[in-house]
What we know:
Elements: H1 8-14, H2 28-41, E1 42-44, H3 45-48, H4 55-59, E2 65-69, H5 75-82, E3 88-93, H6 96-109, E4 114-118, H7 121-127, E5 133-139, H8 157-166, E6 167-177, H9 180-192, E7 196-198, H10 214-221, E8 227-233
Parallel strand pairs: 1-4, 2-3, 2-5, 3-4, 5-6
Antiparallel strand pairs: 6-8, 7-8
Amino acid sequence: MTSTDPHPVADRASRIRTFHPRRGRMSGRQTDALDRLWPTYGLDIAADLDGPFDPAALFGRRAPLVLEIGSGMGDATAVMAAADPDRDYLAVEVHTPGIANLLDLVQRQGLSNVRVAMGDALDLVRALPEGSLDAVHVFFPDPWPKARHHKRRIIQPVHVALLRSRLAPGGTLHCATDWAEYAEAMRGTLTADPELVDGHDGFAPRPAHRPVTKFERRALTAGRPVFDLVHHRRR
Length: 235
C-alpha cells in the first residue's frame, strides 16, 4: 500500500518511544504526596490531552513557560522554579517515585509555579501551540548507548525540530548529558538545525542556574564530565 503521509519518516520517528516506562517503589511520604497532590498539580498526558493544550488553564495564569523533559526526582526543577517565580515550570516524567517526590517538594516549598505531567513528553509538546515555550530543558536524558537504540534518543533531528517549533523566538533549548558520545551527537544535531543559534559556539560553561543533582554528582565522582549545550530559536 502506498502511504499518503507527506512526512512518513518523521511520523515513524514520532511513534518510537524515547523512554522506559518506570513505576518503582515509593516511600509512604511519596505515596501520600501522590494521592493528595496529583489532582491539583498533576497532568496525565495520555488521559487528559485530547486536543490543543493551553498551559494557562493548568497554571491559572499566563506566564513564560519552561518545559522540563525528564525531571527525575524533581530536586533541580524545584530549585529552579523557586528562584524563578515569574516563569511557570511544567515538569514531565515517567518515573512514579520522581513524580511523587516533586509533588511533595512543591507543597513543602509552597511552589505555585510548578505542575507535573506524567507520560510521553513529545505527545505533550505536539499538543502545545507553536511559539508557546520560553525554554525547554532536557537534562541527562537516557543516552540509549547501543547503536541499534540510537533511534530512541530524544535529541535527534525530528524531535529537535518539534521542540524548536514550540519555542518562542529567542527561546532556549538547554541540554545536558554526562555521556560524551551522546554529547557530540547532540551538538551535531542542534548545530544542524537552521533555526537554532548556538549561544556558546559549542559546549557551554556550566550555567549557575542549573543545580547539581545527585545523578550529576555520581557522574562527576565516576570521572564522567558533564556537557551543556544552550541554543536559542532564531528571532
